[in-house]
Records
---
Amino acid sequence: MIAIEYLSIAIAILLLASVITSKAAIPLGVPSLLLFLMIGIVTGSEGIGAIEYNNPELTRTIGDMALTIILFSRRTRY
């Protein structure tokens, strides 16, 4: 149970950091994607090591699902 609690806290912190950086990107004139990439680099295994990358299959599946959602959401707007 403790691992799930730590995971929930880590996800909440990353979501909060994402909201803060997306709000900060507008006055800075920087694309928010660039700031999201910086958060990923800092929290990743090459940064402070908070997130370990050890499952490329899961990452590919999540990326494919995200790409599918993006493609279909763009299609429904026009």
---
Amino acid sequence: MTQRAQQGKTWGAVMLIAGTTLGAGMLAMPLTTSRAGFGLTALGLVAVWGLTYYTALMFLEVYRYHSPQEGFSTLADQAHGKPARFAVTAAILLYMYGLMAAYTNEGGNLLSRLLGLGHTPGVLVYTVLFGLVVKQGVRGVDGVNRWLFPVQLLVFGGLLALMLPRVSLGHLSAPPQELGLTLSILPVFVTAYSFHVVLPSIAEFLDNDPAELRRAVLWGTGIPLAAYLVWQLAIHGLIPQAQLSGLTSLGELSDLVTAATGNRLLGGGMDLFAGLALTTSFLGIGLSLTDSLRDSFPGIARRGDRRGWPIMLLTLVPPVLVTLLVPGAFVVLLSYSGLMAVIYSILLPFVLVRHARRQGQDIQLPGGPALLWLVPLVGILLLLVPLLMGLDLLPKVSG
């Protein structure tokens, strides 16, 4: 492969990671962080990015000794047997099915508004249309993502161009209303950076090349980090904290931003960005879910090809049924997404690295043993955050 072709594949991997990570939920994230203020929010975003980037490097080091076709469930099984396989499979599938149901629901709403369809036809058309893209595998998703993601960034840049000139330094320097929120919002940030499910697909796409994989993960997570920080700066700098903390929906935020700037284009721009972000995330999570199902239930995959109809039906039908028949269920699933993300994206890579080193594999990570052992300590703390909020020992997040 020529150097130019390799660079093109790496850039495709960057866009796939960033597109999966940078979801429509980013727009409403300031509703969750409003009482923490911009300074602590920015600090938390950078810290969690550092944590999730490091755990991604842990996965990549493990994959130097494994085929990318061995998913997280298989790796957990090899390390600690069937109980570990069951726990990891449950965490990953609950996480991804919750996201897929949410994306399917919102995608159906989007098509319903654009085409004048009812909700059910909108959900079905959206699922079939982009489900067929997922069925083509990583190359099919990459081909569509290369068109959608640059447009998504252009729209985001346009929003910022309208908002940043009106940012007030006084608003940005407002102190946090509750210091404890610094801890409470961290699981939300972990979910926002939970791109790790796509790593096996990316590793296969880049022929498991360690250098290219590290480059793709750095840029693929760096773009969302920059976007999160600049969006928080724009919203916290545009809207006083007292007003921002009283909002409960993205629609209210959109109305307030439009009023603050006097520009009606912002509302439409936010809707367009949300639609693009929703679709790139649907493609990334859908691709990852097909690979996870194949890895978790290899008997089903053997009855067809890797993304044959049995796997595709398992990928797409449950989210559609949840959306249409039990519309509140995906909200319940999403409420546990932070917990599931901590299990598979923070604790699992630590377990796999420890097992690999006991097997004599040369796992090379920055920071030495101290940084390595910090990972499970932070992971356990993050698992305790919902319990501490339930006991009123930490303030509850809103939004």
---
Amino acid sequence: MSPCMELLKKHAEDYPSTHTGPESCGAGYHVGYGDVVGLQYHLDNGIPVNLDHFDFALKKEPLVLIATAYCSGRKLISVLKCLKDYNADFSKISEKSKKTALHRLFENMALRKDLSEKSGGVRKYIECVKDAIMILTGYEDDKRNCNINGTDYEGKTILTCYMTDQFSAIKPEEKKEIVSLLLDRGANPNIGCTIKSVFYTFEAPTALFMAIHYDWPTDIFLQIYKKGCDVNKKDGKQRNVLSLAAAERKPDYMKWLLENCADLSKPESMKLATKHAGSLLSKEYLTLQFFSKGKRKLVNQQDLHDKKVSSRDNTNSK
């Protein structure tokens, strides 16, 4: 049996349907199963790489979406490199869901088959995803790159997907390498989204809102902030990120924000956060008081220093 016929047989078993399977093979089947040699055969025989309707998994999609949705492990990287060699357009999106190749990569369950610590699965997954991101955003002509800030039908960017994912076996501490790379590759931390679930709705105007709510390590806070995240943005409840941290009883996050984001220590922001800080004895309220008094003390010390310098200058000028 030829390689193409073997793939068609496997596809019919993996994705059974009520109608008869395809009579002839196509590049989509080779991409879906990570067969680079078969893919090259079809492309070298005149099949345009940027068609929108290749067959796989009972759907018709561009090759880059098939690859990022179904390929597993290093096969994915090999296929993406091959597609890039043939100048595939990585900016293509799903017609129905508006998902980009990066969205499909995030949803790819074949990459998450074994995430156990014993097998080193998490490390392999992270490295594979990072390699894929680099390829998908690696053209010099940005128009052919996957749009790293593209939003799907729910309004989620790929940055939002990773930062708000609660159902993955991978913890924020482990995922931060992926988020860090996305930010370095141009992910915008100021594209907000409303996260809806069966249990609650959470409005996140910026990536810092997401980082606080979903308990990310503070070292990712710094990168988000340095990439231009607007700390003055407010949600529908008129809370900025400091107020959110106070409302969610996260004094350590409040401390980090006040130490690193100057705008949040302004009187208006402090007053707003106090409304959400709970009782006068709460850690959140005491944190605000500590920074408020500390700031006043520094201002008073600076004023005293300036007066001494001014007095000394006046004495010397006489």
